[in-house]
Design goal:
Helix 3 crosses helix 4 (129-142). With 337 residues, the protein is an alpha/beta fold. It folds into two domains: 8-95 and 177-192 and 208-330, Rossmann fold; 103-175, no CATH class. The chain is built from eleven helices and 13 strands. The structure holds adenosine-5'-triphosphate. Adenosine-5'-triphosphate is lined by residues 17, 19, 26, 44, 46-52, 64-65, 101, 216, 280-281. It holds the Pfam family oligo_HPY. It is a peripheral membrane protein. Keywords: ATP-binding, Cell membrane, Membrane, Nucleotide-binding, Transport.
Length: 337
């Protein structure tokens, strides 16, 4: 991979988990492009398949899960779904930096952060380990931490918020140009969250990265993402430029998510939680629209026919009610399940 922001093309991706009821899809027929140099946010409630989709970028879905169909083409690496063993290990860390959702718990409790940093550097053939430590201290310093002290610490000596920032440092320190951040700010207070998101944006711009941010918090994507993809029941239901999607959401689920945000100004009672709950693997409908049970625009066709993804300029929406808009053109959504 060159030293430039890579483009990523996810096409018809389906990921299944083995359950007592057979293999069920957590991600189904997802098609998404990450433009080089962009920050894309994926938002959706718990269980919508965000983490499973993010893990697929590293071909890191673990049993009982497996990628059952589709491809993930990353510039310079090819289709990572086909990568195995050493090739795959090298790609992770060096080309793809990743902060796991449970970043607070992903450190080794027996080793200092500095020792883990050196292990990471050695396992990726970094010659200049001093330079690596310098870089780590610099990144930690920018995130408001005393770098030398953090590198000398064990996991138990750090707060949840500090571990989260260590996770972000480890994802960035090898200079990967594709960075995946899964819930990067969940353990943080509002001020620290804003600070971390500012740093994510700065480092993204300085280094020329392609960044994917996974979150249940629409405020986080509003803060950082150029483009926003909304996920529900393993499907992408709406995508587009963040401002356009937030300013004029089209899919009823996106509208529901936005209406559920309490505003700082105005009546707190105006925030309306979306009624009902998202489906689990066992309750996701096998045919028809995955959102219909909670949808105020439900029509008969929604019970039987999966809505196609329809493009209107840069906006993509999968909804029968919205599909009737006259200026739309249909794009094929591949199903590999
Ligand atoms: N190891 C597993 N075995 C079985 N089912 C799983 C496994 N991991 C995830 N799932 C199921 O797959 C679906 C998608 O989970 P995933 O963690 O990708 O969603 P998410 O949107 O990231 O949610 P969260 O933010 O809560 O992690 C959920 O229904 C979840 O229960």
């Amino acid at each position: 991979m060159s030293n430039q922001a890579p483009g990523v093309r996810i096409d018809g991706l389906t990921v299944v988990y083995k359950t007592p009821a057979g293999e069920l899809p957590a991600v189904r027929g997802v098609t998404l492009t990450l433009e080089p140099g962009s920050i894309t946010g994926i938002v959706g409630e718990s269980g919508s398949g965000k983490s499973t989709l993010a893990l697929s970028l590293l071909n890191a879905v673990q049993p009982p899960g497996r990628i059952a169909g589709g491809s993930v083409e990353i510039d310079g690496l090819g289709d990572v779904v086909g990568l195995r063993g050493e090739e795959l290990r090298k790609a992770r860390g060096k080309h793809i930096g990743y902060v796991f959702q449970a970043a607070q718990n992903s450190l080794n409790p027996l080793k200092t952060v500095g020792k883990q940093l050196l292990d990471l550097g050695r396992s990726h053939g970094v010659d200049d380990l001093r330079g690596l430590v310098r870089e780590a201290k610099e990144l930690l310093g920018r995130m408001g931490l005393d770098g030398a002290r953090v590198l000398d610490s064990h996991q138990h000596e750090l707060s949840g918020g500090m571990r989260q920032r260590v996770g972000i440092m480890l994802a960035l320190v090898l200079n990967a140009h594709l960075v995946v951040l899964d819930e990067p700010t969940t353990a943080l207070d509002m001020i620290t969250q804003a600070n971390i998101l500012r740093i994510v944006r700065e480092v993204h711009a300085e280094r020329g990265l392609t960044t994917l941010v996974i979150t249940h918090d629409i405020g986080v994507v509003a803060e950082v993402a150029d483009r926003l993809a909304v996920m529900y029941g393993g499907r992408l239901v709406e995508q587009g430029p963040t401002r356009e999607v937030l300013g004029a959401p089209r899919h009823p689920y996106t509208r529901g998510l936005i209406q559920a945000i309490p505003r700082l100004t105005g009546d707190i009672g105006e925030a309306r939680a979306l009624p009902g709950r998202p489906p689990t693997l066992a309750t996701v409908p096998k045919q028809g629209c995955v959102f219909r049970e909670r949808c105020e625009l439900r029509m008969d066709v929604c019970d039987t026919v999966d809505p196609e993804t329809v493009a209107d300029g840069p906006r993509l929406v999968a909804c029968h009610a919205v599909n009737s808009a006259p200026a739309s053109t249909t794009v094929a959504t591949k199903e590999h399940a």
